[in-house]
Known about the structure:
Layout: H1 2-30, E1 34-39, E2 45-50, E3 54-59, E4 65-70, E5 84-87, E6 90-93, E7 106-107, E8 114-116, E9 122-126, E10 132-136, E11 141-146, E12 155-156, E13 162-166, E14 172-176, E15 182-183, E16 200-205, E17 211-216, E18 220-226, E19 229-235, E20 245-248, E21 251-256, E22 259-264, E23 270-274, E24 282-287, E25 292-297, E26 304-308, E27 314-317
Antiparallel strand pairs: 1-2, 2-3, 3-4, 5-6, 6-7, 8-9, 9-10, 10-11, 12-13, 13-14, 14-15, 16-17, 17-18, 18-19, 20-21, 21-22, 22-23, 24-25, 25-26, 26-27
Amino acid sequence: LSLAVAVMLLGWIFVARSNAGTENAMALAKAGAVQQARWMPGENAVILLRQAGAADIWDASTGSFKSKVDTPKIEEIASLSSLYLKRGKSLVAWTPDGPKPGDRPIKLPPSNLFEFSANASVAVYVTRENRTAMWDTIQGKPLEDLTLAAIPTPVLNFDGSVVAGADGDGKIVLVDRLSGNRIGESGEAGSVVARDDGMFLRMMFSSTGNSLAVFRHDRLVVCNLSNGTLSVSRINEKVNSSQACFPDPTAIYSTVGTSVTRLDLKTYDVSKWLITNRQVTINSWSLSEDQSLAVASADGKKLGWVINLADGDTHELSPSVWPAE
């Protein structure tokens, strides 16, 4: 009798495990690929937005699943930290609990080629005539024209007071919008056509502070603005520019192989956090106030991760732990 009971119990365990595996596989199949990872305002939680019009919310400290919510189509605006819906010619902030008091619509420029300042007060855009100009996102109207090339699209510092782009000779210049004066020497930050520092790949301002990163094939050029002066550092470190995140002037995040990396811009030390056993591709970054990082996979694996940068603790956020429906 005891042997029969034991066999029966083993059968139940096998069936339970098989069902759990099936449910996990179904959850993975139903989940759309992760498009964005964002910290929830005022919460120690991360929301992963998926292609299928749904999102899942996770506890950032434990990596445990909290809930699923239906979402409308969220715009992918890498330069903005909040989540936005497109409503006509404007962007409207979105949270699972509805609009937040005080949020204002962001009026879009009449172009598909544009970059916001981090505080979304202004944008720089390329006109139909292939000129570059500034845009008021509050009033929804054009501001001053710029004497910068359309390729690459110019970028703005956190409050839109400084714009960086290429002049007619391809030299990278930084311009103070209030005075119209250039900051530093023309080409001090390099050129988008010359290859003295290696081929130009990309440039981006830090989301806070006043630092411009110019990514080149073999190195990184960092320009720091302080009291109207420009200091330039050339760092012999190859950074994956297509995966780069520059939340503040202290560090640049990216990926290499199976790890997320951080380049300290003061010491030039590189830290690595292993997050998967396969090549990792990140399509969304979000840094919390306590320096925890939320990232979303772009490799079709439907995953996200939370990394505590202080102790290296990592949590994988996978739909395989969703409750069965």
